[in-house]
Sequence to fold (400 residues):
Amino acid sequence: MTEDPVPDGARTDGFVRMGESPRNLREVLRKSVWIVIWLVFLSSPIHDLVSGHHTPAATVAGWAGLAAFVTVYLTLVFRHLGKAFTGSLAVTLMVIALGVLAVVLCLTLGASWLGLFVYVSVACGTTLPMRASYWTIPLTAVVMLLVGLHGGEEEAGNLVLLVVLIGFAMTGVRQLVRTTIELRKARATVAQLAANEERLRLARDLHDLLGHSLSLITLKSELAGRMLPDHPDKAAQQVADIEQVSRQALVDVRAAVTGYRRLRLAEELAGAQVALTAAEVTADLPAEPGLDGVPEETESALAWALREAVTNVVRHSGARRCTVELVRRQTLDGPVLELAVEDDGSGGSGAPGNGLTGLAERLEKAGGSMEAGRVRHGFRLVARAPLEGGRTSAGAVATP
Fold:
C-alpha cells in the first residue's frame, strides 16, 4: 500500500465515468452493453424478418439495411455522445443517412419498422447542435407519421409521443454529460491553480526568510575577510555571527517547509469526499469535524491517516461504501481524537503494506496509535492521537 494521494480523476477498474472515453477493451464492452440495451425497439423489425413474410431477396435486403442502420447509429452515439458539435459534415451525413434508411425500410418492409425513427430521434438529440435538435426531433416525428400513412397509421400514432420524448430526453442527457466533463476539467484547473499558488507561497516565504539572512552572511563574510589580517579577534566575532545567522536561517527554513507539508484534516475530509465519489464509493463523512483546540501535530497525523485509509479504499478494497467517523474520546492516558475509517471491501491482500507501516510510525511519533484489520463486513482502520501532551494507549473508552 502507498501513501500517495489519490488523483482527483482516479477511476477504479471496472467503471467508466460519465463523459470519459473507455481506457481498455473491458470498458469498451461495458459501455457497449449500456448502449445495446436500448436497441429493444429493434425487436419488431427482427421479428418481421424472421417471420418469413417477405421474399428471400427482400429478407436479405432487410437484414443488410438493418445492419447498416445499427452500424451508423452506434457509431454516432458511441463516439459523439456528450461532445460539442464541431460542424462535422460526417456527423450530419450520418444523421441524414439514418433518416433515409428508416424511411426506405419502413416504406418497403412495412409498419413493423417504424421503431427505427426512435433511434433517428435519439441521434438528433445526442449529436446535433441544440438549436438543430429542437426542430429535427419534431421533424422526425412528423416524417414517421407521414410514413405511417402508407400502412401503419395506428402504430405511428402510438410511437409519435415516444419519439418526441426520447429525443428531447437525450438532449438533456447530452447536456448532463457535457456539464460533467466541464466540471471535471474545471475542478482539475482549480486544483492546479491551488498547487501553483502554494508553490508561489513557499517561494515567497523562502525568499523572505533567506533574503535577509544570506545578505547578512555575505556582508559579514566580507568584513571577516578584511579584518582577518589585522584584527583576527574581530574577524572571529564576525564568523561567530555568521554561524548564528546561518543556524537561525536553517531553523526558519525547516519551519517553513514543515508548514508547507502539514496536512489539514478539514481539507483531507473534502478531498476524501471527492476521491470516494470519483471511485463511485458511497461516502459517509462528518460534515463539520469540530477541530477547535486540536494540536497541529495531532491534526496533521490524523490527516495523513485519513489520506492513507481513503487511498487504500479506492485503490485496493473494491468497496461500495465507506464510513468515516471523528470522535473525541477519554482514555487512561488522557483525551484523544479518534479517526475511524471502515469500508465493506476486501481490505486488499491482508498483509500490512508500506503505507500502513509508515502511518503507524507517523502516529507513534505524534504520541498516537493505530489499529487496522478485517471486521465482519469489511476493513476498519482506527487512528488515535492525543489532544494534550503525552501518549495514547491502544484501548479507548467513549466519552459519556
About this structure: The two ends are 36 Å apart (CA to CA). The first helix runs from residue 25 to 36. Residues 163 and 228 are 95 Å apart (CA to CA).
